[in-house]
Amino acid sequence: QSFGQLAVTKESKALMGLYHGQVHCKKNKFGTPQKEVKTLAVLGAGLMGAGIAQVSVDKGIKTILKDTAQKGLDRGQQQVYKGLNGKVKKKSLTSFERDSILSNLMGQLDYKGFEKADMVIEAVFEDINVKHKVLKEVEAVIPAHCIFASNTSALPISQIAAASKRPEKVIGMHYFSPVDKMQLLEIITTDKTSQDTAASAVAVGLKQGKVVIVVKDGPGFYTTRCLGPMLSEVVRVLQEGIDPKKVDAISTAFGFPVGAATLIDEVGVDVATHVAEDLGKAFGERFGGGSIDLFKLMVQKGFLGRKAGKGFYVYQEGVKNRSVNSGMDEILEKFKVPANPDVCSDEDIQMRLVTRFVNEAAMCLQEGILSNPVEGDIGAVFGLGFPPCLGGPFRFADSYGARQLVDKLRKYEAVYGSQFTPCQLLLDHANSPSKKFHQ
Amino acid sequence: MSSMLSSALRNLPVSSAWAAGALARSLSCSSQFQAAAQPKTKKTLGKTGVKNVVVVEGVRIPFLQSGTSYADLMPHDLARAALQGLLTRTSVPRDVVDYIVYGTVIQEVKTSNVAREAALGAGFSDKTPAHTVTMACISSNQAMTTGVGMIAAGQCDVVVAGGVELMSDVPIRHSRKMRKTLLTLNRAKTLGQKLSLISKIRPDYFAPELPAVAEFSTSETMGHSADRLAAAFGVSRLEQDEYALRSHTLAKRAQDEGLLQDVVPFKVPGKDTVTKDNGIRPSSMEQMGKLKPAFVKPHGTVTAANSSFLTDGASAILIMSEEKALAMGYKPKAYLRDFVYVSQDPKDQLLLGPTYATPKVLEKAGLTLSDIDVFEFHEAFAGQILANLKAMDSDWFAQNYMGRKSKVGAPPLDKFNTWGGSLSLGHPFGATGCRLVITAAHRLKKEGGQYGLVAACAAGGQGHAMIVELYPQ
């Protein structure tokens, strides 16, 4: 009887929806590519590059991992080895299988073998000039059919493709860290990207075991664009005097697997700053919220997050219960803003974070960045850690009720302004209750 | 002109029709060179009716002193790295390789067929057969000649041969008494039986058994034998130290000038990428002079400085039939021509393999020592090399010990191991043979020669020599 009761809860529907969504996103809607990718080249042996290489070699794809420095290459190869060795320790791989898998990986400092590459994924430094330079170098050595994919998290693909002689072969393949654990792959097409290129990119993503969504080019694409406003709101909440541990507790209580403050540390404060600036320039005031100068001060002090060992929290090897970084007290004090008691209850804080996310997601669907709400839900849950029990932003909008969502948005808009203005699509759904994102 | 040559023909020990046929054939195509008054015509050693076997490429991972960066690995890891290096260098598709043979001396018991484990790990098809051979220091030579045999017999077209040795980890066994007790315990059924076995264990049961670098038949360590050999041939300490310095100096120069093209980098898990041999250390005569003899004390002449050192390393070489190599678009580096294996008394002639093998292989190939442009001999000990050179230069030795009419002659030092040798580069027992062959091929190309002679001695009193002929450029 209890099973029956559970089966019809909203959470159950949400999770079933996610299952169906995953199945949907594991199909290649662009058809079969003309040429199967047998040899993959990854540029940059950093955290992302090595992670992409790892999920490629353990599916049997011959992968070239190229870096500019021996040290960087060694670090990347060691990362792949460690990732596979971890599985050996857990006994899901034998040491022999690990070594056989590693024999698919070719680490090098030059472009040898690129003339046989079917696809190149660049995961180099997030700077447009570096990416242009790399694109030109690579195009000189790859065969005509080879696809150039970029793992950028925010630089518009069309901007990267501007330096290319064959923009129809340029596409975005946005992976999520850690690459071996995060299932999502966000593929970004420009209006010049050919159908076959998209088909190939999706095929490679599926072979790597990823759940694939395909979105159109735009600042922040879909995932980074939805996360931006939410993280901005997190900073505002922190400035209003709620300490990081409380913020984490409130967000995990709502269903986020990773607390909001910890999430900023995981993403990296420097990355968050960059994204906030770029998206702020592209979308204006709507992306404001917390003070970007707070982030800048953190970066200045070296509190970059997990990768630097210190962010909002202190990260120590072997310590499970993290302590709040005491250096943050001074910074938070400096940027303190008065809180409005009407919108500061725990529930309000949760809704402030979530509504900004959902609103932005709806706007992506409205503008055609997203092609359908299923991909929107999958992308949010599997790439950004949107609460799975709520099924994603669009499922949540349906179950919570668009009307109720708009009401909340209006409530916060009254206090904070345009950052909470509901988008037209949400307003349409609020006005006709029969309109749902998911039927 | 042709009458001079035909008289030379008559003087050669022509033992079979093929020799005459081959010579006649090459005479006709080399006639255009006679006008240039060359001292001798360099003929090719191809035999009619026998497939030409070529070396396409040969690589090795850097040879390191034992106990350094490879210390935590297993032999098949090193072999696999060499195989991967070979695959990367040649871009040969894995499914084209018909057979893989590896040579190794000190076997890791878990991977007794190290060729198979290395091949599977390197991504070769599990349908590619692989086996492992052992013949002490000439194990990879044996691997290569096994491959040559298979190709010449027409049973394979493409063979990968190689060798590996990991001295950093050796099988240290329980004593025989302990082993017997443990095995019997396994079979004991009742508690009473087990207890009675355990009660027989004494302290001496716990003494471990280490593999010794000693001849099983004579219980003599190789260094000791080398010292006796040096003494027998009157090789002085000074001469040995000089030779060792020569080896290290030439190796250093070759390393610095980038001549050691066969070395491929190896990313060791958990450590940095290894790119160079780390045993090359040219010292000085004074420094070397200070060392005490290592094997025969106090008056011996063989020291640590003039012996090869314990080394970890692996090599791999790609050999094919000539037609297959050309059909696949490869430019072969060399032909593998005549080869011999010799055996003599392990007690008093342990390290004289090259002396016995050289005249035999030259005779087989119809060459004289002066026809050889490049010599690559394995340097187990400086004393061993010098003793061999003296033996080769001795009519008396040739007549009394080898049953030959006259000496074969000593190789001139300016053609001998000019890019260093096992003394300085290192000697991972099983892997050295492939290094000798590919170095001979590279040297022939660089120095402009046609024939190379590779020779080595081996524990057990065996030896090997092979003629390597440069592929026409």
Automatic annotation (TrEMBL), chain A:
GO terms for molecular function: enoyl-CoA hydratase activity; long-chain (3S)-3-hydroxyacyl-CoA dehydrogenase (NAD+) activity; NAD+ binding. Pfam families: 3HCDH (PF00725), 3HCDH_N (PF02737). GO terms for cellular component: mitochondrial fatty acid beta-oxidation multienzyme complex. Residues 40-217 form the 3-hydroxyacyl-CoA dehydrogenase NAD binding domain. It catalyses: (3S)-hydroxyhexadecanoyl-CoA + NAD(+) = 3-oxohexadecanoyl-CoA + NADH + H(+); (3S)-hydroxyhexadecanoyl-CoA = (2E)-hexadecenoyl-CoA + H2O; (3S)-hydroxydecanoyl-CoA + NAD(+) = 3-oxodecanoyl-CoA + NADH + H(+). Keywords: Oxidoreductase. GO terms for biological process: fatty acid beta-oxidation. Pathway: Lipid metabolism; fatty acid beta-oxidation. Residues 220-315 form the 3-hydroxyacyl-CoA dehydrogenase C-terminal domain. Coiled coil: none annotated. PANTHER family: TRIFUNCTIONAL ENZYME SUBUNIT ALPHA, TRIFUNCTIONAL ENZYME SUBUNIT ALPHA, MITOCHONDRIAL. This is ECHA enzyme. It comes from Dicrurus megarhynchus.
UniProtKB/TrEMBL annotation, chain B:
PANTHER family: ACETYL-COA C-ACYLTRANSFERASE, TRIFUNCTIONAL ENZYME SUBUNIT BETA, MITOCHONDRIAL. Mitochondrial trifunctional enzyme catalyzes the last three of the four reactions of the mitochondrial beta-oxidation pathway. The mitochondrial beta-oxidation pathway is the major energy-producing process in tissues and is performed through four consecutive reactions breaking down fatty acids into acetyl-CoA. Among the enzymes involved in this pathway, the trifunctional enzyme exhibits specificity for long-chain fatty acids. Residues 53-323 form the Thiolase N-terminal domain. Its EC number is 2.3.1.155, 2.3.1.16. The lineage of its organism: Eukaryota, Metazoa, Chordata, Craniata, Vertebrata. GO terms for cellular component: endoplasmic reticulum; mitochondrial fatty acid beta-oxidation multienzyme complex; mitochondrial inner membrane; mitochondrial outer membrane. It is an enzyme of class 2 (transferase). GO terms for biological process: fatty acid beta-oxidation. Keywords: Acetylation, Acyltransferase, Endoplasmic reticulum, Fatty acid metabolism, Lipid metabolism, Membrane, Mitochondrion, Mitochondrion inner membrane, Mitochondrion outer membrane, Transferase, Transit peptide. Heterotetramer of 2 alpha/HADHA and 2 beta/HADHB subunits; forms the mitochondrial trifunctional enzyme. Also purified as higher order heterooligomers including a 4 alpha/HADHA and 4 beta/HADHB heterooligomer which physiological significance remains unclear. The mitochondrial trifunctional enzyme interacts with MTLN. Interacts with RSAD2/viperin. It is found in: Endoplasmic reticulum; Mitochondrion inner membrane; Mitochondrion outer membrane. It catalyses: octanoyl-CoA + acetyl-CoA = 3-oxodecanoyl-CoA + CoA; butanoyl-CoA + acetyl-CoA = 3-oxohexanoyl-CoA + CoA; hexanoyl-CoA + acetyl-CoA = 3-oxooctanoyl-CoA + CoA; tetradecanoyl-CoA + acetyl-CoA = 3-oxohexadecanoyl-CoA + CoA. Residues 330-469 form the Thiolase C-terminal domain. Belongs to the thiolase-like superfamily. Thiolase family. CDD domains: thiolase (cd00751). This is Trifunctional enzyme subunit beta, mitochondrial. It holds the Pfam family Thiolase_C. InterPro entries: Thiolase, Thiolase-like, Thiolase_acyl_enz_int_AS, Thiolase_AS, Thiolase_C, Thiolase_CS, Thiolase_N. It comes from Dicrurus megarhynchus. Pathway: Lipid metabolism; fatty acid beta-oxidation. GO terms for molecular function: acetyl-CoA C-acyltransferase activity; acetyl-CoA C-myristoyltransferase activity.
